[in-house]
TrEMBL record:
The chain crosses the membrane at residues 6-24, 85-108, 114-132, 153-177. It comes from the Eukaryota. The gene is Ubac2. This is UBAC2 protein. Its main location: membrane. InterPro entries: Rhomboid-like_sf.
Amino acid sequence: DKAPLSKSLLLVLSAISILLTLLFQHYQKFFAYNLQAIKEDFQIWRLVCGRTVCLDLKDTFCSSLLIYNFRIFERRYGSRKFSSFLLGAWMLSALFDLLLVEITQYIFGITINSLPSGFLGPVFALFVPFYSSIPRVQVTQVLGHFSITNKSLVYILGLQLLTSGSYIWILALSGLVS
């Protein structure tokens, strides 16, 4: 309730991702986050398409659950402020993606031609206000040492998303920094 942007993002991005994965596989190449095509051929439209729709269903599922959990910020801030936060995080994380790829190539000599596609930068950016403004409430303890809180599932989903791809750490770091 009272989170129309989160629900729209959840439904539209998931539906497009499922359609691209199941029915329209030959159109997936247009949604690939190909950095080489962006830098060399100036295909800026790939920056928009590659950073909005996930091409992996596991990433789609995890990011959809995270968007659903982060709808609390849209309720707190309002749809306008939440959408401006997402847009700002999306643009800044795109810039940081390119910078981190260049830094990785310069320092380690690793050439990265493409990154995992999807709305992952803003999703990881939402972990910062989640960590700082959502209070931690202990639900139970496991084995007497590990406490399970109301935030545990969200962090486990973020960790699952972080470990789902080879270079997704670049997207995560750029989202957190943005």
